[in-house]
Design a protein that fits this description.
Organism: Aspergillus cavernicola
Keywords: Carbohydrate metabolism, Cobalt, Hydrolase, Metal-binding, Signal
Number of strands: 23
Strand content: 15-25%
Shape: globular
Protein name: NodB homology domain-containing protein
Low-confidence stretches: 1-48, 448-457
Pfam families: Polysacc_deac_1
Cofactor: Co(2+)
Number of helices: 13
């Protein structure tokens, strides 16, 4: 039985600890770039595998080396994922759906898998089938130092494609730009059962009689605006006593943003969020889905529990705001195959929105160094990020919000709603003259030089 969640906003907000808003783990932490690779090579070159010959499989990983796969590139787990490496296997002891294990297809740059587009990803494993498998796409510059490092990924549910100890997935079932492939990853664990991996390879054929299921529709994942010269603030949960300050800033700065809204907060009459977001809609802002009770949806035990988080959020929007949305930000940024598939079961062409700029208010807003929210923002924008995650849960975050807006304006970038920055034909036309505050802006850190000594980026 699922734990009950009070719909009173006070009790909901009490549970929103800094850990609750921990940033989603990027599926692949940038590995060290080999010294022989110059920046020009990383940004401009696209490597490719040897073309398949005579049906010979391309062996990616047999887990004989703890640090490198059979292609000679990095493989390994995310920091929090406990693992055991043996001769010819790696065993994963998962405890969170955000944990992941990657095996890279190249040295942190783009690799062209198009010659293999009619072939199959084959994984030999034992243990749990309660996980997702992804093929990951690099950013346009093929540079791991740019944000986002992984621009997107497509995901399948392991159980649907497995029989016995084998898993076969047609590469055509991964809807990404496969000329910019980075890695294969295992994540979205929704059980503490162990998973042992023995082999990852690309093969030309599947065994006779092995059933390949049809590709299920799923939501497309975005971490980055696609419209040239655009920037979007995606604002998640907030506190009632701060919302008027946020509305004032938005009105005075003459920008539109997207709010990702939890259904339970909307239903809380005392918090009055339904009236707040009706006013936001009237002013032209976008209101988008953010689950019903802000749980890690991919980690829920059953499809029924996942459906409840999605359907109740949709129904609350229809009943209290009179709107429908196909935009969804998963709590924590946690997303796997089941969440993506269930969104597509209830929404036409759902768009799943994560981020490439993290203000890190979940980490710094209530700390002794809240100014590090500024540092995080400027760092990610400097790396090329243009789609923000932030909350208005703390006065310090709201305090820096106007500064963030004015900085983006000063670099001649247009701020708009998420649907506009993703060039959605159903979004309202963007008015380029809504604001025109231009000029120079100098970024200065509030941190003392002594505080930065010994830190690494």
């Amino acid at each position: 039985m699922r734990p009950t969640v009070s719909l009173a906003w006070a009790s909901l907000s009490t549970s929103l600890s800094p850990l609750f808003f921990a940033s989603a783990v990027q599926l692949l932490p940038p590995p060290p770039i080999p010294s022989r690779f110059t920046a020009a090579f990383i940004q401009n070159q696209t490597a490719s595998f040897p073309h398949p010959k005579n049906g010979t499989p391309l062996v990616i990983d047999t887990f004989t080396d703890p640090d490198r796969n059979d292609l000679g590139f990095w493989h390994g787990p995310s920091t929090s994922l406990a693992s055991e490496h043996g001769n010819g296997y790696v065993r994963l002891y998962s405890s969170d759906p955000d944990q992941n294990y990657h095996t890279e297809l190249g040295p942190a740059t783009c690799f062209d898998m198009q010659p293999y587009k009619h072939m199959y990803l084959h994984v030999v494993f034992s243990g749990s089938t309660k996980f997702s498998v992804s093929l990951n796409q690099h950013n346009q510059k093929c540079d791991s130092r740019r944000s986002p490092f992984l621009e997107t990924w497509d995901t399948v549910e392991a159980e649907r494609y497995s029989r016995g100890n084998d898993l076969y997935v047609p590469l055509a079932h991964f809807d990404i730009d496969q000329s910019r492939t980075v890695s294969v990853s295992f994540h979205g664990f929704f059980s503490r059962e162990t998973l042992t991996l023995y082999k990852v390879e690309i093969v030309t054929e599947i065994p006779w009689g092995f059933y390949i299921p049809p590709k299920l529709e799923n939501g497309k994942l975005y971490l980055h605006c696609t419209r040239p010269n655009s920037f979007a603030f995606g604002i998640d949960d907030g506190m009632p006593h701060l919302v008027q300050d946020v509305m004032k800033i938005l009105e005075e700065e003459k920008i539109l943003v997207t709010f990702f809204v939890v259904g339970a907060g909307l239903r809380d009459k005392e918090a009055n969020f339904s009236q707040v977001y009706k006013e936001m809609l009237r002013r032209g802002h976008q209101i988008a889905l953010h689950s019903d009770t802000h749980q890690q949806i991919e980690g829920l035990d059953t499809i029924k529990a996942i459906d409840e988080e999605i359907v109740h959020n949709i129904e609350t929007f229809q009943r209290l705001l009179g709107i429908q949305s196909r935009y969804f930000r998963p709590p924590y940024g946690t997303v796997g195959a089941r969440t993506r598939q269930r969104l597509a079961a209830y929404l036409k062409d759902p768009r799943i929105i994560n981020w490439s700029v993290d203000v890190e208010d979940w980490l710094w807003a209530e700390s002794k160094t809240p100014e590090r929210q500024r540092d995080a923002f400027f760092r990610d924008v400097g790396r090329g990020g243009n789609l923000v995650v932030m909350h208005y849960l703390s006065p310090t975050t709201v305090q820096y919000f106007r500064e963030f807006i004015r900085f983006v304006k000063s670099i001649n970038v247009d701020i708009m709603r998420v649907d506009q920055c993703l060039e959605d034909p159903d979004s309202p036309p963007f008015d380029p003259y809504r604001y025109r505050q231009r000029g120079r802006y100098r970024v200065e850190s509030n941190r003392n030089p002594e505080d930065q000594q010994g830190e690494t980026g």
